[in-house]
């Protein structure tokens, strides 16, 4: 069987994370993704850092499997080339600053009016209308506006998420929106616009604290690694300097913890600890009892005892630990993808199709690597190609 999106062509005028991560999902599932970049440096995420053997880590993560066309959209000749590509595409995705796509005639409404089968995705920070429509929308700013920062961190200090949560949320809704639109087109023959905003996406992910606050009168407090309404549910230090996260979900599990790990069976029926409500009310004492017991054990022994008791637990891993995680290795989740600096390790995408082909994990493109080939596909004469390159319209 082919990959689900074999034969689907995507043109993307994209930058940073939200649109590139969405279109990378499409590329992994077999779509051909043509990434349109500025000739003078390309997607600005290329310059974020040099951590991936000289390439930017964000760019490597979000852009494998794509073809890079370096073209100046503000030049009428460059703009015409992209419009010709879009005319033959199934999907168009853009996340330019609010209003920029419309000024270029590359907004979803304009393109879908010209090409009824096209699915055109506009990704924005705050949506096309409203008082925030033209506000700059970087990931950390949207995390703050969506309230994520207010519920993340310690009681003393709010913190942002350690990954670009707003970008990722918008990317995944754009990805699923494209899949839904392709399914609809298969029955109606029509594409149409798809709109996704970072604020809408992350506000949806705020479901639990949002509903807790709206209907319960106040938002859950910041509790660090701990859970706001369950105890014990926190990271506890071990004798060898590690940390183990423990989660007790019900009172039966608490009794098993007391008997088999804490070795204090009397706490199972102690009214100060016997119910979750009591344990939360006496959280400091609950955590102190658990911390004292686990501090005597090494990390491996603590995890072993907790698992033997049928209790949920995890090591608090570092990034290096994840890169060497035994479960990822055992399930053969790592691959190597080509790049301008040689092969780079990358994880398989989470969605797999057992019995079918593996994900198409293509190369990370160099800036303008596919410009000549794409101009050739469009039938641009060699003399015209030379003039476009000489004038800086393409690179």
Topology:
Layout: E1 9-13, H1 18-28, E2 32-37, H2 57-62, E3 66-70, H3 76-87, E4 91-94, H4 100-103, H5 108-114, E5 119-124, H6 139-145, H7 165-188, E6 192-197, H8 198-205, H9 207-216, E7 233-237, E8 243-247, H10 251-261, H11 276-281, H12 283-294, H13 299-308, E9 312-315, H14 319-323, H15 326-330, E10 334-337, E11 344-347, H16 371-377, H17 382-390
Parallel strand pairs: 1-2, 1-4, 2-3, 4-5, 5-6
Antiparallel strand pairs: 7-8, 8-9, 10-11
Helix pairs in contact: 1-7, 7-8
Summarize the structure.
With 395 residues, this protein is of the alpha/beta class.
What does this entry look like structurally?
With 395 residues, the protein is an alpha/beta fold. Helices cover 39% and strands 14% of the residues. The protein is built from 17 helices and eleven strands. The chain has helices spanning 18-28, 57-62, 76-87, 100-103, 108-114, 139-145, 165-188, 198-205, 207-216, 251-261, 276-281, 283-294, 299-308, 319-323, 326-330, 371-377, 382-390, and strands at residues 9-13, 32-37, 66-70, 91-94, 119-124, 192-197, 233-237, 243-247, 312-315, 334-337, 344-347. A six-stranded parallel sheet has the order 3-2-1-4-5-6, with helices on both faces. Strands 7-8-9 form a three-stranded antiparallel sheet, covered by helices on one side. β7 (233-237) and β8 (243-247) form a beta hairpin. α1 (18-28) packs across α7 (165-188) and α7 crosses α8 (198-205). The longest helix has 24 residues, at 165-188. It is elongated and about 85 Å long. The mean pLDDT is 96.
């Amino acid at each position: 069987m082919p990959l689900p999106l074999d034969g689907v062509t995507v043109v993307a005028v994209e930058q940073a994370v939200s649109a590139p991560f969405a279109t990378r999902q499409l590329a992994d599932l077999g779509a051909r993704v043509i990434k349109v970049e500025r000739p003078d440096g390309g997607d600005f995420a290329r310059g974020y850092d040099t951590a991936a053997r000289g390439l930017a880590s964000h760019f490597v993560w979000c852009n494998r499997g794509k073809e890079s066309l370096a073209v100046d959209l503000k030049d009428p000749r460059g703009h015409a080339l992209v419009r010709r590509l879009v005319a033959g595409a199934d999907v168009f995705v853009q996340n330019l600053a609010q209003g920029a796509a419309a000024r270029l005639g590359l907004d979803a409404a304009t393109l879908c009016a010209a090409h009824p089968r096209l699915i055109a995705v506009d990704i924005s920070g705050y949506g096309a209308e409203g008082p925030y429509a033209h506000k700059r929308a970087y990931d950390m700013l949207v995390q703050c506006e969506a309230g994520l920062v207010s519920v993340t961190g310690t009681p003393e200090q709010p913190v942002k998420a350690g990954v670009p949560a707003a970008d990722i949320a918008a990317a995944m809704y754009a990805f699923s929106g494209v899949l839904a639109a392709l399914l609809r087109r298969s029955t109606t023959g029509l594409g149409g616009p798809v709109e996704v905003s970072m604020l809408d996406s992350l506000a949806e992910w705020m479901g639990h604290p949002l509903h807790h606050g709206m209907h319960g009168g106040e938002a859950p407090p910041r509790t660090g690694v701990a859970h706001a309404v369950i105890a014990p549910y926190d990271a506890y230090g071990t004798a060898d300097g590690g940390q183990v996260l423990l989660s007790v979900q019900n009172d039966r599990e608490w009794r098993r913890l007391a008997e088999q790990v804490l070795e204090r069976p009397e706490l199972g029926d102690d009214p100060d600890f016997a119910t979750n409500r009591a344990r939360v009310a006496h959280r400091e004492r609950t955590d102190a009892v658990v911390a004292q017991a686990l501090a005597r054990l090494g990390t491996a022994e603590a995890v072993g005892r907790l698992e033997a008791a049928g209790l949920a637990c995890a090591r608090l891993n570092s990034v290096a630990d994840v890169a060497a995680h035994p479960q990822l290795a055992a399930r053969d989740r790592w691959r190597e993808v080509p790049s301008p600096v040689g092969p780079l390790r990358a994880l398989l995408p989470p969605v797999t199709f057992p019995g079918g082909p593996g994900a198409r994990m293509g190369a990370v493109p160099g800036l303008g690597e596919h410009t000549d080939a794409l101009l050739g596909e469009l039938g641009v004469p060699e003399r015209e190609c030379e003039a476009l390159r000489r004038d800086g319209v393409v690179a």
